Structures are given as C-alpha cells and as structure tokens.
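Late entry, written up from scratch paper. The run itself happened at the end of the previous shift, but nothing got recorded in the book at the time, so transcribing now.
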Amino acid sequence: MPMDRNNEGGSRPVPDPPLLTPQALEREVAALKSLFAEQLVALRELLLEMFKGVDKQFAARDVAVNAAFQAAKEAVGEQNKSSAAAIAKSENATTDQIKQIGTQITSNTKTTDDKIDDLKARLGTVEGLLRGVDRSEHRSDRSNQMWIGIIGIAVGAIIAIAAIVFRPSPQITVEPAPVAGTFGAVPIPNK
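Output as recorded:
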C-alpha cells in the first residue's frame, strides 16, 4: 500500500483507512442485508410450499372422512331396511301362530261343549228312566235304585270331566322368531 507524507512529518496510507473502514462496513452490511433478504424470500417460499402440502393433506382427509361418513350412512340405511323386513316377517309369523292357537282353542271348546251336551242328554235319559222305575216299584226299592242311578251318573260325569280335563293336549311348540338380519323357516305348531 502506498504512503502519503503530510506536512506534519507523518505518513498516511493511501487510500485513507478511516474512509475505507466505513465503506467496507457499509459494503458488508449491504451484502448481509441482501443475503438475509434472499434467505427470507427462500424461507417464505418454503413455508408457502409446506402450507400448500398441509392444505392438500387436510383436503384429502376431508374427502376421506366425508366418503367414510357417506358409506356408514348407506350401511346403516341398508341395515335398517333389513331389520324392518325381518321384523315384519317375524310379526307375520307370530300372527299366524296366534291364529292357529285360536283355531285350536275353538276346536277344543266345541269338542268339550259337545261332550257336556251328550252328558246332559244321558242324564236326562237316566232321570226319565228313574221316574219310570219310581212309579212301578215300591218306594224303598225306588229310593235305592234312584241313589244307585244318581251315583252312577255322578261317577260317569266325573270320569267324563276328568277325561276331558286330563287328556293330553296337542303339543304346540313356539320357537323364537328369527333374529333381525337372518332368514329361516317359519315355525309351524305340531298338530
């Protein structure tokens, strides 16, 4: 570096360092500002790209969640239709079973009524016979025969009623209705 001599006897380097230092400092600060600005721009672009990626992930997630909700909604709708059909089928089977049991009860009642009517007719016949016997025989014989007849009728009536009451009833099996969602045979009672 060349030196310049001044009047005072000293020398000063050319260019003057006090002038060079602020210039160099300004030049370095400007370079740092430029570098910092470039890095900020690059960082901003990087963040924008990252946000775009996150936005895409959220959008994809929203689409997937909406599709899952729609599929679940459709599945529940189909399950409800299936359950409604199974319930209707079960109700129809139960109604049919109730009708069959009602028919069977009506039939049993008619049979019992017929037997009671038959017993009444027989009792009337026996009473008529007893009255006829009453007129033709002595009072003590009539009384004994009447009691024998009454006891016979009573025993016969008791036996007939016991036979009606204690006779084995037809076995009716009622199976539980099919579970919703299954399709099986409708149970029919045994006759």
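Residues 2 and 14 are 6 Å apart (CA to CA).
(Scratch paper discarded after transcription.)
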